[in-house]
Amino acid sequence: MEEQTALIAGEGSLPVEIASRLTDRGRPPVVYSIRENVGALSRYALDVVNITKPDFGFTIKDMRKHGVKNVIMAGTVSKTLIFKPSLFDLTTQRFLAGLLFRDDHSLLGAIVDFLEKEGFHVLSYRDIVPDLLAKSGHIAGRRPTKEELDDAEYGFSICKAVVPLSFGQTVITHKRSVVAVEAMEGTDATLLRAGSLCKGGVVAKMMRLDQDERYDIPTVGPETLYHMAQAKLTCLALHAGWTLIVEPEKFRKAAEEKNISVIGVEVCRSL
Question: For residues 5 and 81, what is the distance between their CA atoms, to the nearest angstrom?
């Protein structure tokens, strides 16, 4: 008998894609939804449990009730939640109080450790959706210009410096100047902030080189390109093999429509 899997699902289409693939394999997950709307996820779930606020105590107890052995975490969750302790149950409050650092890497890593100490096996979803990983070279839209390639190279050099500090997964450069760096606000807000500062620019998106692939794999989709077009950013450079492209057909169509160049860049995984 297959071990039961739970999918802790944030916003975005990635959790839907993962749930769909698990269902196709005959292993529909129990979905713990921290989304505003469950939407299409319900089609691929053995059961849906809505979590209206961070509640580790309830979630652990309910996963055991459902016989869950494996856990996958996917989707976007607002990082500003850590500033709202009144929303948390006592177990979650104690968990947060025990953290020395609360950056993305430390927080997500601690959650994985917490789940595994509770007896669950946290799985990577990278192998569930390997076809969504960005390839090296030209991916979609028009071919990049020489200036865009130069800015992409410069952008990744900045990412390599700041991502180990647990911010800067997305960096926007223009004419070899740093326009914006992603922090807690998320990618979309960073793109729009860059657009308020200049017209034109390259978006570099990179996974931390020592990142645990069970969580926080960079993800882009059609909405990324729509926000780039709104901000008048012209090229998207992705960490090849370590960035997911959701809704790939819509993504390619959006790149063509918005005249945005999308490329995959090889980045050495060794530090």
Answer: 25
Alpha carbon 22 to chain centroid distance?
A: 19
* Type of residue found at 200: G
Please compute Rg for the chain using Cα positions.
Answer: 19
- Give the SS3 label for residue 261: strand
Domain at 131-265, CATH homologous superfamily: LpxI C-terminal catalytic domain (3.40.140.80)
Output the six-digit token pair for 122. 């946290």
Left (φ > 0), alpha (ψ -120 to 50) or beta: where does 26 sit?
Answer: left
Per residue in 84-122, pLDDT (tens digit) is 565 566 766 666 666 545 455 556 777 888 899 999 999
Rounded to whole angstroms, the Cα distance separating 170 from 163 reads 9
Q: What are the start and end residues of each CATH 3.40.50.20 domain in the chain?
A: 4-122
Q: Tell me, what's the pLDDT at 165? A: 86
**pTM to 2 decimal places:** 0.86
CATH of domain 4-122: 3.40.50.20
Residues of the chain within CATH 3.40.140.80 domain(s) are: 131-265
